[in-house]
Specification:
By secondary structure, the protein is an alpha+beta fold. It has 1 helix and 6 strands. It has one helix spanning 68-85; strands at residues 2-12, 15-23, 28-38, 41-45, 48-53, 56-61.
């Protein structure tokens, strides 16, 4: 199950804020997941670290899912859990996350 531990609003371009997520069934907490929004669409970004290449700042993921299907399921559940945390959606049970 996914539990949102915290959400800190921080608006800059598509960035809307940072959240901490707990995967309670495996005892893992992921910090600094980013929430983005553009033209009514929301998505999350996994934690990353910046690096310089050709004079530009780029980002390298610290952790990521290697299967797109798992990544998509995680993203959907995190967004739904965040909406519940913020009081914007009803709770849903039965997901592996």
């Amino acid at each position: 199950m996914i539990e949102i531990v915290s959400f800190k609003e921080y608006k800059s371009n598509t960035l809307q804020g940072f959240l901490t997520v707990r995967l309670t069934n495996i005892g893992l907490e992921i910090r600094d997941i980013t929430l983005h929004e553009k033209e009514g669409s929301q998505w999350i970004g996994m934690p990353s670290k910046p690096y310089e290449k050709d004079g530009k700042t780029k980002y390298s993921y610290i952790a990521t899912f290697y299967e797109k299907e798992t990544s998509d399921k995680f993203q959907t559940k995190v967004l739904k859990s965040l909406a519940e945390y913020l009081g914007e959606a009803p709770e849903d049970e039965g997901s592996p996350f």
